[in-house]
């Protein structure tokens, strides 16, 4: 199902946590609870993921790092859905490494960007990219930069990628062929700080709706096993079923508290690098385990597509790598130990 960005914008979903006058100014904790509820109500994971990438990866980068003029220029379009945002962070060969981000820049009267990004969520329909790049002449962590790149610049090539899950969440490889932008399109100061401030929002918040969707699936499966009977009564009475469902419930509640705690630390300005990594790690692993267990319990019914459980499992497999793989999160946690 195609994303109706303007409809989501009119409902205020694309600017929930944006403090600029075009947004709603809600806290991170309020925002993840609202996203969680959208998943619980049945909004597709594809749409939840695309909205999350747009809000947490692009709009919040501008809201947190942008100058007043940058915010006024681009945030109204992002929060209304007139413009689709995309964070172009991952290089084709470097994963989430910050020393080789796939794109370089040259300084001058204008900034010139060259290189390739991949796995860019919303890339095929994006009107605005937030692009991480390193200086071509002297790449280092001190020279890392974020740049605002409108799609209408010449030299941008976008190739849609076909994914196994999240089919309605478009993804792309984006090539920048000496793309020229004004020097004042740099976002924030140079160094790793800007990149990390963007990633902590995405890691802390983007999977909130998926937790709500897992709870919906868990409730549906519980209802199914309570209402389906053998000759002795409801199937739910078997511990092989009820204990699996109970474990999913316990894991889900623990992941929810981790999610809320991470969002609260984001609001309070604590050690967000550690808390966002813990949140992303725990929530993503809980989602995959939970959906896998539900598919196993439903057996052939899941295989035939009942309750969309097979599609759900396919959708959540990708979140183990989104915003950094589990190993990237473990590296971030270990660095704070």
Number of strands: 10
**SSE order in H/E notation?**
HHHHEEEEEEEEHHEEHHHHH
Distance between the termini: 44 Å
Residues in β-strands, percent: 15-25%
Structural features, described:
This protein has 337 residues and is an alpha+beta fold. Helix content is 50%, strand content 17%. Strands 1, 2, 3, 4, 5, 6, 7 and 8 form an eight-stranded mixed sheet that branches. Strand 2 (103-106) and strand 3 form a beta hairpin. Helix 5 runs antiparallel to helix 7 and helix 8 (272-298) runs antiparallel to helix 11 (326-335). The N and C termini lie far apart (44 Å). The model has no long low-confidence stretch (mean pLDDT 93).
Short description:
The protein is built from eleven helices and ten strands. With 337 residues, the chain is of the alpha+beta class. The protein starts with a helix and ends with a helix.
Features:
eight-stranded mixed β-sheet; 11 helices; alpha+beta; 337 residues; single chain; two-stranded antiparallel ribbon
Question: What order do the helices and strands come in, and which of them pair?
Answer:
Elements: H1 5-10, H2 28-40, H3 45-65, H4 68-80, E1 85-88, E2 103-106, E3 110-121, E4 128-135, E5 145-150, E6 156-161, E7 171-182, E8 186-187, H5 192-205, H6 208-227, E9 229-230, E10 233-234, H7 239-268, H8 272-298, H9 300-303, H10 309-317, H11 326-335
Helix pairs in contact: 2-6, 2-7, 3-4, 3-5, 5-7, 5-8, 6-7, 6-8, 7-8, 8-10, 8-11
């Amino acid at each position: 199902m195609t994303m109706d960005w303007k409809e989501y914008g009119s409902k205020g979903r694309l600017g929930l946590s944006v403090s600029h006058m075009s947004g709603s100014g809600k806290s991170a904790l309020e925002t993840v609870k609202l996203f969680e509820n959208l998943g619980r109500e049945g909004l597709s994971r594809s749409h939840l993921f695309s909205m999350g990438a747009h809000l947490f990866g692009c709009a919040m980068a501008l809201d947190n790092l942008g100058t007043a003029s940058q915010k006024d220029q681009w945030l109204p379009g992002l929060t209304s859905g007139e413009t689709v945002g995309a964070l172009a962070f991952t290089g084709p060969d470097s994963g989430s490494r910050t020393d080789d981000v796939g794109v370089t820049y040259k300084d001058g009267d204008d900034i010139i960007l060259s290189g390739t990004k991949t796995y860019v969520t919303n890339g095929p329909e994006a009107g605005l990219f937030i692009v991480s790049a390193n200086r071509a002449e002297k790449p280092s962590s001190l020279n890392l930069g974020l740049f605002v790149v409108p799609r209408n610049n010449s030299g941008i090539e976008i190739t849609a990628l076909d994914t196994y899950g999240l089919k309605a969440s478009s993804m792309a490889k984006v090539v920048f062929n000496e793309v020229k932008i004004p020097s004042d399109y740099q976002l924030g100061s140079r160094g790793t700080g800007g990149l990390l401030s963007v990633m902590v929002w995405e890691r802390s918040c983007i999977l909130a709706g998926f937790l709500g969707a897992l709870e919906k699936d868990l409730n549906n499966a519980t209802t199914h096993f309570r209402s389906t009977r053998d000759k002795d009564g409801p199937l739910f009475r078997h511990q092989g079923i009820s204990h699996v469902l109970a474990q999913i419930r316990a894991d889900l509640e623990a992941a929810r508290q981790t999610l809320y705690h991470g969002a609260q630390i984001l609001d309070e300005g604590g050690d967000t690098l550690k808390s966002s990594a813990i949140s992303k790690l725990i929530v993503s692993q809980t989602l995959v385990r939970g959906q896998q267990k539900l598919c196993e319990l439903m057996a052939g019914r899941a295989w035939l597509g009942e309750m969309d459980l097979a599609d759900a499992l396919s959708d959540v497999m990708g979140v183990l790598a989104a915003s950094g793989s589990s190993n990237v999160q473990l590296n971030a946690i270990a660095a704070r130990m």
